[in-house]
Design brief:
Order of helices and strands: HHHHHHHHHHHHHHHHHHHHHH
Low-confidence stretches: none
Number of strands: 0
Length: 472
Protein backbone atom coordinates (compact mmCIF):
# COMPACT_ATOMS: atom_id res chain seq x y z
CA UNK A 1 0.00 0.00 0.00
CA UNK A 2 1.36 3.42 -1.04
CA UNK A 3 0.82 5.40 2.18
CA UNK A 4 2.25 8.57 0.62
CA UNK A 5 -0.20 8.31 -2.29
CA UNK A 6 -3.18 7.87 0.06
CA UNK A 7 -1.99 10.81 2.15
CA UNK A 8 -1.69 13.03 -0.95
CA UNK A 9 -5.13 11.95 -2.08
CA UNK A 10 -6.64 12.97 1.27
CA UNK A 11 -4.83 16.31 1.13
CA UNK A 12 -6.03 16.91 -2.43
CA UNK A 13 -9.62 16.15 -1.45
CA UNK A 14 -9.32 18.50 1.52
CA UNK A 15 -8.02 21.35 -0.64
CA UNK A 16 -10.68 20.91 -3.35
CA UNK A 17 -13.44 20.67 -0.74
CA UNK A 18 -12.62 24.13 0.60
CA UNK A 19 -14.35 25.52 -2.46
CA UNK A 20 -11.76 28.21 -3.15
CA UNK A 21 -9.90 28.59 -6.42
CA UNK A 22 -7.65 25.52 -6.42
CA UNK A 23 -4.09 25.97 -7.68
CA UNK A 24 -2.71 22.62 -8.82
CA UNK A 25 0.78 24.11 -9.34
CA UNK A 26 1.06 25.19 -5.71
CA UNK A 27 -0.19 21.78 -4.56
CA UNK A 28 2.45 20.00 -6.67
CA UNK A 29 5.26 22.14 -5.28
CA UNK A 30 4.05 21.87 -1.69
CA UNK A 31 3.77 18.06 -1.81
CA UNK A 32 6.98 17.69 -3.82
CA UNK A 33 5.45 15.56 -6.60
CA UNK A 34 5.60 15.81 -10.39
CA UNK A 35 2.69 16.53 -12.76
CA UNK A 36 2.35 12.89 -13.81
CA UNK A 37 1.99 11.70 -10.20
CA UNK A 38 -0.46 14.54 -9.46
CA UNK A 39 -2.67 13.52 -12.42
CA UNK A 40 -2.58 9.90 -11.20
CA UNK A 41 -3.65 10.94 -7.67
CA UNK A 42 -6.39 13.20 -9.06
CA UNK A 43 -7.75 10.40 -11.25
CA UNK A 44 -7.76 7.95 -8.32
CA UNK A 45 -9.55 10.50 -6.12
CA UNK A 46 -12.16 11.07 -8.83
CA UNK A 47 -12.81 7.32 -9.07
CA UNK A 48 -13.21 7.06 -5.30
CA UNK A 49 -15.72 9.94 -5.23
CA UNK A 50 -17.63 8.50 -8.18
CA UNK A 51 -17.84 5.07 -6.53
CA UNK A 52 -19.14 6.65 -3.33
CA UNK A 53 -21.80 8.69 -5.15
CA UNK A 54 -22.96 5.65 -7.14
CA UNK A 55 -23.74 3.86 -3.91
CA UNK A 56 -25.08 6.85 -1.98
CA UNK A 57 -28.55 7.61 -3.31
CA UNK A 58 -32.08 8.25 -2.09
CA UNK A 59 -34.03 4.99 -1.88
CA UNK A 60 -36.86 6.12 -4.18
CA UNK A 61 -34.63 7.86 -6.71
CA UNK A 62 -34.25 6.98 -10.40
CA UNK A 63 -30.79 5.62 -9.60
CA UNK A 64 -32.34 3.22 -7.08
CA UNK A 65 -34.79 2.04 -9.72
CA UNK A 66 -32.01 1.60 -12.27
CA UNK A 67 -30.09 -0.56 -9.79
CA UNK A 68 -33.16 -2.77 -9.40
CA UNK A 69 -33.27 -3.19 -13.16
CA UNK A 70 -29.61 -4.29 -13.12
CA UNK A 71 -30.45 -6.80 -10.38
CA UNK A 72 -33.41 -8.06 -12.42
CA UNK A 73 -31.26 -8.63 -15.49
CA UNK A 74 -28.63 -10.47 -13.44
CA UNK A 75 -31.27 -12.78 -11.95
CA UNK A 76 -32.83 -13.33 -15.37
CA UNK A 77 -29.65 -14.15 -17.23
CA UNK A 78 -28.55 -16.53 -14.48
CA UNK A 79 -31.80 -18.50 -14.58
CA UNK A 80 -33.09 -17.43 -11.17
CA UNK A 81 -36.58 -17.03 -12.59
CA UNK A 82 -38.73 -16.91 -9.45
CA UNK A 83 -36.51 -14.22 -7.92
CA UNK A 84 -36.51 -12.41 -11.29
CA UNK A 85 -40.33 -12.47 -11.35
CA UNK A 86 -40.54 -10.90 -7.89
CA UNK A 87 -38.04 -8.25 -8.91
CA UNK A 88 -39.95 -7.63 -12.15
CA UNK A 89 -43.23 -7.01 -10.30
CA UNK A 90 -41.48 -4.67 -7.90
CA UNK A 91 -39.89 -2.68 -10.75
CA UNK A 92 -43.17 -2.35 -12.66
CA UNK A 93 -45.01 -1.17 -9.55
CA UNK A 94 -42.42 1.51 -8.81
CA UNK A 95 -42.04 2.60 -12.44
CA UNK A 96 -45.82 2.81 -12.87
CA UNK A 97 -46.08 5.04 -9.78
CA UNK A 98 -43.29 7.20 -11.17
CA UNK A 99 -45.11 7.34 -14.54
CA UNK A 100 -41.86 6.04 -16.01
CA UNK A 101 -43.55 3.85 -18.59
CA UNK A 102 -40.40 3.47 -20.68
CA UNK A 103 -38.94 1.40 -17.82
CA UNK A 104 -42.11 -0.72 -17.74
CA UNK A 105 -41.71 -1.32 -21.49
CA UNK A 106 -38.04 -2.17 -21.13
CA UNK A 107 -38.41 -4.82 -18.40
CA UNK A 108 -41.64 -6.25 -19.81
CA UNK A 109 -40.08 -6.79 -23.22
CA UNK A 110 -37.04 -8.48 -21.66
CA UNK A 111 -39.33 -10.72 -19.60
CA UNK A 112 -41.24 -11.69 -22.75
CA UNK A 113 -38.03 -12.44 -24.64
CA UNK A 114 -36.96 -14.80 -21.83
CA UNK A 115 -40.47 -16.31 -21.58
CA UNK A 116 -40.36 -15.46 -17.91
CA UNK A 117 -44.15 -15.45 -17.58
CA UNK A 118 -44.36 -19.26 -17.83
CA UNK A 119 -42.26 -19.64 -14.66
CA UNK A 120 -44.67 -17.68 -12.43
CA UNK A 121 -46.67 -19.58 -9.79
CA UNK A 122 -49.74 -18.31 -11.67
CA UNK A 123 -48.48 -18.40 -15.26
CA UNK A 124 -49.74 -15.76 -17.69
CA UNK A 125 -50.30 -16.31 -21.38
CA UNK A 126 -48.22 -14.61 -24.06
CA UNK A 127 -51.36 -12.74 -25.08
CA UNK A 128 -51.82 -11.33 -21.56
CA UNK A 129 -48.27 -10.06 -21.12
CA UNK A 130 -48.26 -8.72 -24.69
CA UNK A 131 -51.43 -6.72 -23.99
CA UNK A 132 -49.78 -5.30 -20.89
CA UNK A 133 -46.80 -4.25 -23.02
CA UNK A 134 -49.13 -2.53 -25.50
CA UNK A 135 -50.78 -0.65 -22.60
CA UNK A 136 -47.40 0.56 -21.36
CA UNK A 137 -46.67 1.87 -24.85
CA UNK A 138 -50.04 3.66 -24.92
CA UNK A 139 -49.39 5.31 -21.56
CA UNK A 140 -45.86 6.30 -22.57
CA UNK A 141 -46.95 7.81 -25.89
CA UNK A 142 -49.78 9.69 -24.17
CA UNK A 143 -47.52 11.20 -21.51
CA UNK A 144 -44.83 12.08 -24.06
CA UNK A 145 -47.46 13.91 -26.10
CA UNK A 146 -48.38 16.10 -23.13
CA UNK A 147 -44.74 16.71 -22.17
CA UNK A 148 -43.87 17.80 -25.71
CA UNK A 149 -46.93 20.06 -25.90
CA UNK A 150 -46.03 21.58 -22.52
CA UNK A 151 -42.50 22.38 -23.70
CA UNK A 152 -43.84 23.91 -26.92
CA UNK A 153 -46.37 26.11 -25.12
CA UNK A 154 -43.82 27.12 -22.46
CA UNK A 155 -41.34 28.32 -25.08
CA UNK A 156 -44.09 30.09 -27.02
CA UNK A 157 -45.66 31.84 -24.04
CA UNK A 158 -42.46 33.78 -23.29
CA UNK A 159 -42.79 35.54 -26.65
CA UNK A 160 -46.34 36.72 -25.87
CA UNK A 161 -47.11 38.29 -22.44
CA UNK A 162 -48.73 41.26 -24.21
CA UNK A 163 -52.21 41.36 -25.75
CA UNK A 164 -50.90 43.57 -28.56
CA UNK A 165 -48.47 40.89 -29.74
CA UNK A 166 -49.43 39.33 -33.05
CA UNK A 167 -48.85 35.83 -31.68
CA UNK A 168 -51.27 36.18 -28.74
CA UNK A 169 -54.09 34.65 -30.78
CA UNK A 170 -51.77 31.80 -31.72
CA UNK A 171 -51.09 30.80 -28.11
CA UNK A 172 -54.83 30.89 -27.32
CA UNK A 173 -55.25 28.63 -30.35
CA UNK A 174 -53.44 25.90 -28.45
CA UNK A 175 -56.64 25.44 -26.45
CA UNK A 176 -58.03 23.76 -29.58
CA UNK A 177 -55.30 21.11 -29.49
CA UNK A 178 -56.82 17.63 -29.40
CA UNK A 179 -54.94 16.70 -26.21
CA UNK A 180 -56.62 19.62 -24.41
CA UNK A 181 -60.17 18.86 -25.55
CA UNK A 182 -60.86 16.75 -22.45
CA UNK A 183 -58.92 15.90 -19.31
CA UNK A 184 -60.12 12.30 -19.74
CA UNK A 185 -57.62 12.03 -22.60
CA UNK A 186 -54.78 12.29 -20.07
CA UNK A 187 -54.21 8.65 -19.09
CA UNK A 188 -51.79 8.94 -16.15
CA UNK A 189 -51.19 11.12 -13.11
CA UNK A 190 -48.43 13.15 -14.75
CA UNK A 191 -50.30 13.40 -18.05
CA UNK A 192 -53.25 14.97 -16.22
CA UNK A 193 -50.90 17.28 -14.33
CA UNK A 194 -49.51 18.45 -17.67
CA UNK A 195 -53.05 18.91 -18.99
CA UNK A 196 -53.70 21.51 -16.27
CA UNK A 197 -50.20 23.00 -16.45
CA UNK A 198 -50.41 23.59 -20.21
CA UNK A 199 -53.68 25.47 -19.78
CA UNK A 200 -52.16 27.61 -17.03
CA UNK A 201 -49.27 28.51 -19.36
CA UNK A 202 -51.58 29.36 -22.26
CA UNK A 203 -53.59 31.73 -20.09
CA UNK A 204 -50.44 33.20 -18.52
CA UNK A 205 -49.03 33.92 -21.98
CA UNK A 206 -52.27 35.57 -23.10
CA UNK A 207 -52.59 37.65 -19.90
CA UNK A 208 -55.74 35.84 -18.75
CA UNK A 209 -54.30 35.78 -15.26
CA UNK A 210 -57.33 34.62 -13.26
CA UNK A 211 -57.68 31.58 -15.50
CA UNK A 212 -53.95 30.94 -15.23
CA UNK A 213 -54.23 30.99 -11.43
CA UNK A 214 -57.19 28.61 -11.58
CA UNK A 215 -55.38 25.97 -13.64
CA UNK A 216 -52.14 26.36 -11.68
CA UNK A 217 -54.05 25.50 -8.52
CA UNK A 218 -55.82 22.61 -10.25
CA UNK A 219 -52.47 21.16 -11.29
CA UNK A 220 -51.10 21.59 -7.77
CA UNK A 221 -54.14 20.09 -6.04
CA UNK A 222 -54.28 17.17 -8.44
CA UNK A 223 -50.64 16.27 -7.83
CA UNK A 224 -51.06 16.63 -4.07
CA UNK A 225 -54.09 14.34 -4.01
CA UNK A 226 -52.28 11.74 -6.15
CA UNK A 227 -48.91 11.81 -4.43
CA UNK A 228 -46.65 8.76 -4.36
CA UNK A 229 -43.58 8.01 -2.26
CA UNK A 230 -41.97 6.70 -5.44
CA UNK A 231 -42.48 9.91 -7.42
CA UNK A 232 -40.75 13.12 -6.39
CA UNK A 233 -43.15 15.91 -7.41
CA UNK A 234 -41.27 18.77 -5.72
CA UNK A 235 -40.11 20.01 -9.13
CA UNK A 236 -43.70 20.18 -10.35
CA UNK A 237 -44.91 21.82 -7.13
CA UNK A 238 -42.36 24.61 -7.65
CA UNK A 239 -43.58 25.22 -11.20
CA UNK A 240 -47.25 25.29 -10.16
CA UNK A 241 -46.67 27.75 -7.33
CA UNK A 242 -44.46 29.92 -9.53
CA UNK A 243 -47.12 30.19 -12.24
CA UNK A 244 -49.78 30.95 -9.63
CA UNK A 245 -47.69 33.72 -8.06
CA UNK A 246 -46.67 35.15 -11.44
CA UNK A 247 -50.33 35.48 -12.38
CA UNK A 248 -51.19 36.96 -8.96
CA UNK A 249 -48.46 39.60 -9.16
CA UNK A 250 -49.52 40.46 -12.70
CA UNK A 251 -52.94 41.18 -11.21
CA UNK A 252 -51.19 43.39 -8.60
CA UNK A 253 -52.20 40.99 -5.85
CA UNK A 254 -49.61 40.87 -3.07
CA UNK A 255 -51.37 38.71 -0.46
CA UNK A 256 -50.95 35.43 -2.43
CA UNK A 257 -47.22 36.13 -2.61
CA UNK A 258 -46.95 36.86 1.10
CA UNK A 259 -48.82 33.65 1.91
CA UNK A 260 -47.30 31.27 -0.63
CA UNK A 261 -43.74 32.51 -1.19
CA UNK A 262 -42.46 31.06 2.14
CA UNK A 263 -43.99 27.70 1.11
CA UNK A 264 -42.21 27.94 -2.24
CA UNK A 265 -38.91 28.68 -0.48
CA UNK A 266 -39.43 25.64 1.75
CA UNK A 267 -40.17 23.38 -1.23
CA UNK A 268 -37.12 24.69 -3.07
CA UNK A 269 -34.88 24.05 -0.07
CA UNK A 270 -36.18 20.47 0.11
CA UNK A 271 -35.49 20.02 -3.59
CA UNK A 272 -31.93 21.29 -3.15
CA UNK A 273 -31.44 19.08 -0.06
CA UNK A 274 -32.30 16.02 -2.17
CA UNK A 275 -29.85 17.13 -4.87
CA UNK A 276 -27.10 18.85 -2.92
CA UNK A 277 -24.51 18.44 -5.65
CA UNK A 278 -26.77 19.31 -8.60
CA UNK A 279 -25.88 22.83 -9.73
CA UNK A 280 -28.79 22.86 -12.21
CA UNK A 281 -31.32 22.30 -9.41
CA UNK A 282 -29.84 25.25 -7.52
CA UNK A 283 -29.97 27.47 -10.60
CA UNK A 284 -33.48 26.29 -11.44
CA UNK A 285 -34.89 27.12 -8.01
CA UNK A 286 -32.97 30.41 -7.79
CA UNK A 287 -34.43 31.73 -11.04
CA UNK A 288 -37.99 31.26 -9.78
CA UNK A 289 -37.41 32.60 -6.27
CA UNK A 290 -35.33 35.59 -7.38
CA UNK A 291 -37.68 36.61 -10.17
CA UNK A 292 -40.78 36.44 -7.97
CA UNK A 293 -39.07 38.37 -5.17
CA UNK A 294 -37.97 41.12 -7.56
CA UNK A 295 -41.47 41.39 -9.03
CA UNK A 296 -42.98 41.68 -5.56
CA UNK A 297 -40.49 44.36 -4.48
CA UNK A 298 -41.20 46.32 -7.67
CA UNK A 299 -44.96 46.07 -7.13
CA UNK A 300 -44.69 47.20 -3.50
CA UNK A 301 -41.93 49.75 -4.27
CA UNK A 302 -39.88 48.28 -1.43
CA UNK A 303 -36.48 49.63 -2.40
CA UNK A 304 -35.22 49.29 1.18
CA UNK A 305 -35.51 45.50 1.17
CA UNK A 306 -34.14 45.38 -2.37
CA UNK A 307 -30.99 47.31 -1.48
CA UNK A 308 -30.45 45.12 1.59
CA UNK A 309 -30.72 41.91 -0.43
CA UNK A 310 -29.25 43.06 -3.72
CA UNK A 311 -25.64 41.95 -3.19
CA UNK A 312 -26.78 38.46 -2.21
CA UNK A 313 -29.12 38.24 -5.21
CA UNK A 314 -26.44 39.55 -7.57
CA UNK A 315 -23.89 37.05 -6.26
CA UNK A 316 -26.29 34.15 -6.78
CA UNK A 317 -27.27 35.44 -10.22
CA UNK A 318 -23.63 35.69 -11.32
CA UNK A 319 -23.00 32.18 -10.01
CA UNK A 320 -25.96 30.60 -11.81
CA UNK A 321 -26.52 32.80 -14.86
CA UNK A 322 -25.10 30.26 -17.31
CA UNK A 323 -27.80 27.74 -16.31
CA UNK A 324 -30.71 30.17 -15.94
CA UNK A 325 -33.27 30.00 -18.74
CA UNK A 326 -32.76 32.94 -21.17
CA UNK A 327 -36.29 34.26 -20.56
CA UNK A 328 -35.84 34.24 -16.79
CA UNK A 329 -32.39 35.78 -17.15
CA UNK A 330 -33.86 38.78 -19.00
CA UNK A 331 -36.67 39.18 -16.47
CA UNK A 332 -34.24 39.07 -13.54
CA UNK A 333 -32.03 41.69 -15.24
CA UNK A 334 -35.12 43.85 -15.74
CA UNK A 335 -35.93 43.40 -12.05
CA UNK A 336 -32.46 44.67 -11.14
CA UNK A 337 -32.65 47.55 -13.65
CA UNK A 338 -36.04 48.92 -12.64
CA UNK A 339 -35.46 48.60 -8.88
CA UNK A 340 -32.09 50.34 -9.25
CA UNK A 341 -33.93 53.03 -11.23
CA UNK A 342 -36.55 53.31 -8.50
CA UNK A 343 -33.75 53.55 -5.92
CA UNK A 344 -32.12 56.42 -7.83
CA UNK A 345 -29.00 54.40 -8.73
CA UNK A 346 -29.12 55.42 -12.39
CA UNK A 347 -25.68 54.20 -13.48
CA UNK A 348 -26.41 50.72 -12.14
CA UNK A 349 -29.83 50.75 -13.75
CA UNK A 350 -28.35 51.77 -17.09
CA UNK A 351 -25.81 48.94 -16.87
CA UNK A 352 -28.54 46.34 -16.36
CA UNK A 353 -30.59 47.82 -19.21
CA UNK A 354 -27.60 47.32 -21.49
CA UNK A 355 -27.23 43.73 -20.28
CA UNK A 356 -30.89 43.14 -21.17
CA UNK A 357 -30.29 44.40 -24.70
CA UNK A 358 -27.32 42.06 -25.05
CA UNK A 359 -29.65 39.07 -24.50
CA UNK A 360 -30.44 38.87 -28.20
CA UNK A 361 -31.33 35.16 -28.15
CA UNK A 362 -34.09 35.58 -25.55
CA UNK A 363 -37.67 35.17 -26.81
CA UNK A 364 -38.96 37.56 -24.13
CA UNK A 365 -39.78 40.46 -26.43
CA UNK A 366 -41.85 42.28 -23.81
CA UNK A 367 -38.90 42.50 -21.40
CA UNK A 368 -36.50 43.47 -24.20
CA UNK A 369 -38.93 46.28 -25.05
CA UNK A 370 -39.06 47.35 -21.40
CA UNK A 371 -35.26 47.37 -21.26
CA UNK A 372 -35.08 49.65 -24.30
CA UNK A 373 -37.63 52.16 -23.01
CA UNK A 374 -36.30 52.10 -19.45
CA UNK A 375 -32.82 52.88 -20.79
CA UNK A 376 -34.24 56.03 -22.42
CA UNK A 377 -35.89 57.07 -19.15
CA UNK A 378 -32.69 56.46 -17.23
CA UNK A 379 -30.57 58.50 -19.62
CA UNK A 380 -33.06 61.37 -19.61
CA UNK A 381 -32.71 61.42 -15.81
CA UNK A 382 -28.91 61.21 -16.15
CA UNK A 383 -28.97 64.26 -18.47
CA UNK A 384 -27.09 62.35 -21.18
CA UNK A 385 -28.28 64.83 -23.83
CA UNK A 386 -25.71 63.93 -26.47
CA UNK A 387 -26.32 60.19 -26.13
CA UNK A 388 -30.14 60.29 -26.23
CA UNK A 389 -30.55 60.71 -30.06
CA UNK A 390 -28.37 57.62 -30.55
CA UNK A 391 -30.35 55.65 -27.95
CA UNK A 392 -33.62 56.66 -29.59
CA UNK A 393 -32.32 55.48 -32.95
CA UNK A 394 -31.02 52.13 -31.65
CA UNK A 395 -34.15 51.49 -29.60
CA UNK A 396 -36.38 52.17 -32.60
CA UNK A 397 -34.34 49.78 -34.74
CA UNK A 398 -34.34 47.07 -32.06
CA UNK A 399 -38.11 47.24 -31.53
CA UNK A 400 -38.87 47.23 -35.26
CA UNK A 401 -36.61 44.23 -35.71
CA UNK A 402 -38.58 42.33 -33.05
CA UNK A 403 -41.90 43.51 -34.50
CA UNK A 404 -42.59 45.36 -31.24
CA UNK A 405 -42.83 48.94 -32.50
CA UNK A 406 -46.49 49.35 -31.54
CA UNK A 407 -48.27 52.70 -31.36
CA UNK A 408 -47.57 53.01 -27.65
CA UNK A 409 -43.81 52.54 -28.07
CA UNK A 410 -43.74 54.73 -31.19
CA UNK A 411 -45.58 57.57 -29.46
CA UNK A 412 -43.32 57.42 -26.42
CA UNK A 413 -40.08 57.40 -28.41
CA UNK A 414 -41.24 60.11 -30.85
CA UNK A 415 -42.40 62.21 -27.91
CA UNK A 416 -39.00 61.98 -26.24
CA UNK A 417 -37.32 62.79 -29.53
CA UNK A 418 -39.17 66.13 -29.65
CA UNK A 419 -37.63 67.21 -26.34
CA UNK A 420 -34.30 68.88 -27.06
CA UNK A 421 -31.45 69.97 -24.85
CA UNK A 422 -31.73 73.58 -26.00
CA UNK A 423 -35.40 73.88 -25.02
CA UNK A 424 -36.19 76.07 -22.05
CA UNK A 425 -37.55 74.39 -18.93
CA UNK A 426 -41.11 75.58 -19.57
CA UNK A 427 -41.03 74.16 -23.10
CA UNK A 428 -39.73 70.81 -21.89
CA UNK A 429 -42.46 70.57 -19.27
CA UNK A 430 -45.07 71.43 -21.91
CA UNK A 431 -43.76 68.70 -24.25
CA UNK A 432 -43.75 66.17 -21.42
CA UNK A 433 -47.31 67.19 -20.60
CA UNK A 434 -48.37 66.61 -24.22
CA UNK A 435 -46.67 63.22 -24.23
CA UNK A 436 -48.29 62.27 -20.92
CA UNK A 437 -51.76 63.02 -22.33
CA UNK A 438 -51.05 61.08 -25.54
CA UNK A 439 -49.73 58.08 -23.62
CA UNK A 440 -52.70 58.08 -21.23
CA UNK A 441 -55.13 57.94 -24.15
CA UNK A 442 -53.24 55.05 -25.72
CA UNK A 443 -52.93 53.15 -22.44
CA UNK A 444 -56.64 53.59 -21.70
CA UNK A 445 -57.68 52.47 -25.18
CA UNK A 446 -55.32 49.49 -25.29
CA UNK A 447 -56.90 47.85 -22.24
CA UNK A 448 -53.52 46.26 -21.52
CA UNK A 449 -51.38 47.98 -18.85
CA UNK A 450 -48.58 45.39 -19.04
CA UNK A 451 -45.96 47.80 -20.44
CA UNK A 452 -46.84 50.52 -17.94
CA UNK A 453 -46.89 47.98 -15.09
CA UNK A 454 -43.39 46.86 -15.94
CA UNK A 455 -41.61 50.24 -16.11
CA UNK A 456 -44.22 52.79 -14.90
CA UNK A 457 -43.97 55.18 -17.84
CA UNK A 458 -47.06 57.09 -16.62
CA UNK A 459 -45.52 57.81 -13.22
CA UNK A 460 -42.26 58.91 -14.82
CA UNK A 461 -44.04 61.30 -17.20
CA UNK A 462 -46.10 62.67 -14.33
CA UNK A 463 -42.88 63.52 -12.51
CA UNK A 464 -41.47 65.18 -15.61
CA UNK A 465 -44.45 67.49 -15.97
CA UNK A 466 -43.63 68.91 -12.56
CA UNK A 467 -39.87 69.07 -12.87
CA UNK A 468 -37.96 67.69 -15.83
CA UNK A 469 -34.74 67.33 -13.88
CA UNK A 470 -32.87 68.26 -17.04
CA UNK A 471 -30.15 70.82 -16.63
CA UNK A 472 -30.04 73.82 -18.96
Amino acid sequence: MDIKRIYNKILLFSEIRKGNQFDSGKFIVKQNIDRKRYNSIKYALFQDILALLKNNYEKHSDIALENKIVEFEILLTNGLFLKAIRKLKQIKKIAYQKCNFSVCIRVQRKAINYRLFIHDTNPSSLEQVSKELVEFHRLSDNLNGYVQLSDEVLNFHFSCLDKRATNTDAIVGYLEHKLLSSEDLALSVLAKYYFFRIKSLIYLGSNAFEKSKHFSLKALKYLTSNASVYRNDLWHYIKCKNNYLEASLSLRQTIPFEEMYPELQDISEKRIALNKRDTYVKAFTFQFLCNLKLRYLWLTKDTGTFLKEFESLKKSYNKHQGLIWPSFRVEILLGFARLKFLSGELNESNMYCNLILNEKASPSSLYITCGNLLRLMVNFDKNNHELIPHLISTSTYALKKRDRFFQLERTFINGLNRIKQYHKEERKIALFQELKIEMKKLLDSSGDPVLDDNIRISEWLEGKTKNTGLAE
